[in-house]
Specification:
about 50 residues, mainly alpha, about 0% strand
């Protein structure tokens, strides 16, 4: 996935990162009765060292 996003957005693969976790049996998702997804994206202007 990182390589695909890197190629699509013409970014260095080192600037792309994924974190994953499980729900450890909690709630509908954890019990296998549903699925869930969450995506957080942080963007910054190229060359902006203040962020």
């Amino acid at each position: 996935m990182e390589k695909s996003i890197s190629n699509l957005l013409n970014l260095d693969i080192e600037s792309i990162n994924f974190k994953v976790t499980s729900t450890d049996g909690l709630g509908i998702v954890g019990k296998g009765d549903g699925i869930g997804a969450l995506c957080v994206v942080t963007l910054r202007k190229h060359g902006n060292a203040n962020l």
